[in-house]
Amino acid sequence: MSSIVISGDTSGAITLAAPSVAGTNTATLPASSGVVMVSGNMPAFSAYASSNTSLTANTATLIGFQTKVWDTATCYNNTGSTVTLNGLSVPAYAFCPNVAGYYQINGGWTTNSASAQSFYISPYKNGSLYIYGNWQTGSSIGGVAICSSLIYLNGTGDYVQLYAVDSLTVGTTTGQQYTYFQASLVRAA
Amino acid sequence: MNLYEKIIALYPSLVTSDFIGIGATIHLQNDGAGDYIAKWEHPTLVKPTQEQLDGVK
Questions:
Q1: How far is CA B27 from CA A28, A160, B38, B40, in A?
Q2: Alpha helices (runs of H) in chain A, residue ranges in sequence order
Q3: Residue-wise pLDDT tens digits, A24-53
Q4: In chain B, what residues touch A132 (CB-CB under 8 Å)?
Q5: What is the ipTM of this complex?
Q6: Contact (Cβ atoms closer than 8 angstroms) between residue A125 and residue A150
Q7: Which residue, A38, A45, A53, is CA-closest to A90?
Q8: Contact at CB, A62 and B30, closer than 8 angstroms
Q9: Which of A95, A85, A169, A78 is nearest to A130 (CA)?
Q10: DSSP states along B8-51
Q11: With respect to CATH, is domain B3-55 assigned 3.30.56.60?
Q12: Chain B closest-CA separation from residue A62 CA (Å)
C-alpha cells in the first residue's frame, strides 16, 4: 500500500502517501491535539522597497515594500491602497494572513542620508505600535535598522505593517538588501 | 513647512527625544496620507490646535 485515502463526510478526501523511494519512515504524532501544519497552510512572504518612501523628521512613517520576492498565500498587499486578499480587507503595505497563529516578523530599513542621525523600524499591529526595533544612532548609509518579533494574528483581519522613524527628514535606500519586510507562520493557533 | 517643523516653531524647547524613542511623549505619524499628531502627552506643553499649526508660516 503506497497511500491511504480518507474520504470526507460530504466531499473531498485526505490522502496519506508514502514517498516513492525505498526505506522505512516513521511520523510520530504527539500525545496532544492540534492542527497539522503543511506548506499549503503556512503563509510566508518576503518583499522589499523598490521605490522611495520619504520620512519627515521624527514622524513614524508607513514604509512601502513594493516588490515581492515570494508570497506563498497571497497575504501581503504590495500597493499603497487597501485591497481585498483572500476575502480580507488589507491596508497598504500590510501582511494580513488568512491562517490564525504566531508569526515571525522581520524588517529592515535603511536611510538614504549620510548625515548623523538616529532611526529605527517597528512593526505595527492593526495600526498601533507593537514593539520597538533596534535603535541605530549616529549612522549613515550602511547601518540598517532592524526589527524582529513574534506576533499573534487571528487570520480573520489582523495585519502587520512596518513604520520607520528618523531624527532627520530623509528618504529610503531601496533594494532587497537594505529595506525589507518578511513574515512566516511559526505555529498555528 | 512640515508638521514637525511647525510644532518646533511653536515650541522651540522640544527636542528629538520628545518625539522618538522610549519616553517620547509626542508621536507624529504618517500612514500614507500625510503627517498627523497620533499622540500628545507632553507634561507641560499643550497640544497645538489646527488653527495654531495653520498659522505657522
A1: 51, 19, 5, 6
A2: none
A3: 889 898 899 888 888 888 999 999 999 999
A4: 22
A5: 0.88
A6: no
A7: A45
A8: yes
A9: A95
A10: HHH-TT--HHHHSSTT--EEEEESSS-EEEEEE--SSSPPPPHH
A11: yes
A12: 5
Using the Cβ of A55 and the Cβ atoms of chain B, whether some distance falls under 8 Å is answered with yes
- The pLDDT tens digits of the residues spanning B2-42 come to 999 999 999 999 998 899 877 899 999 999 999 999 999 99
The x, y and z cell numbers of residue A92, run together, are 497598504
| Sign for the pseudo-dihedral over CA of A45, A48, A50, A56 | positive
Contact A120, A163 (CB under 8 A): no
Residue of B52, B46, B55 lying closest to B26 (CA atoms): B46
Domains and CATH numbers, chain A: 43-188 (2.60.120.40)
The number of residues in chain B equals 57
The C-alpha cell at A172 is: 529610503
